[in-house]
Amino acid sequence: MTMEEDKTPDKSRSWLERLSSLVAREPQDKEQLMDVLREAEDRSIVSSEMLGMIERILQVSEMQVREVMVPKSQMVMIPKNSRWEELLALVIESGHSRFPVIDPLNKNIVGILLAKDLLKYRDGVQFNIADILRPAMFTPQSKRLDILLSEFRSSRNHIAIVLDEYAHIAGLVTTEDVLEQIVGEIEDEYDTEEENGHIKKLDDGFYIVKASTPIEEFNDYFKAHFSNEEFDTIGGIVLKQFGHLPKRGETIKIDQYRFKVLHSDNRRVYLLEMKIIRAKKREGKEK
What we know:
Blueprint: H1 3-7, H2 15-23, H3 30-42, H4 48-60, E1 70-71, E2 78-79, H5 84-94, E3 98-102, E4 109-114, E5 138-140, H6 145-155, E6 159-163, E7 169-174, H7 175-183, E8 199-201, E9 206-210, H8 215-222, H9 234-242, E10 251-254, E11 257-264, E12 269-276
Parallel strand pairs: 2-3, 5-6
Antiparallel strand pairs: 1-7, 3-4, 6-7, 8-9, 9-12, 10-11, 11-12
């Protein structure tokens, strides 16, 4: 074998073997790990799509339930004393497959209703919602998404009721909400523009805003006046203001809006947390 042959890369090695040799440097933190993975992308060991997914997976371990949950104000909840005909109409209208069932008297969630369980009552069978309720899973809004996903898998649940620090209902979260942070938007034939809206208002005055929100939609929602001549989305405006691709946790103030990056990878920003900053009134009396 010649010296040139010795220097020729072994193309028979799998990308996983080649990646393992890079990771053998034992990175000390996530940033060093990402540096190794970016080098692997430069060497065409991993694709840019794979690198982006790995980066989003790592970020999921830092994200909390409150960042992806459906706020209580947007939840579709069913009173436990509902009649079968009322439930059927609601299921058809909403297109959801799972519904929290609430006790109208004490406002507590008493279980989860699966739409498919209503089918057995089609032929005049006496209906009692208590007979088909599934146990509800509860989770604090501060729980990390990777832990929640593990709990979803072990318990075989697909939906959890989110509680705030006072054990009050704050919203709900599904496996789909978590997985979308890794693979991107998951849509089905029942999704509507309203359900997959770009802006969610949280009960504590914060907003969760997708970076892909059209500027026109953002302006209409907040009565803002951002120009769409240079950029089409609010993410474009935020990126320009940063002047670089921001990492999770970085914040910036634009006019009366403070944006915090919740989710990004090596190529783009996906999710923002926004707070409207009210101008403080001047103290003292004008002379």
